[in-house]
Amino acid sequence: RGWAERGINRRMGAKKSGCLDQCEKGPTVVVYPENVWYGGVTEADVNEIVDEHLIGGRPVERLRMPE
User: Which regions of the chain are under pLDDT 70?
Assistant: First the structure.
């Protein structure tokens, strides 16, 4: 599902970035302002991150990188 279908397109955004100095972790996602880092993210993980963390407020622990 798209962000607009979830009603969050005006509250959140996604930005493409270059290197985040975490290449060994695979594709990486960072959620601000919480500063939660996810590593080894696949396309299949995106909806879970959006639904659980961005909407539900609960970080996805199985993908979370140690601080």
Answer: 1, 9-10
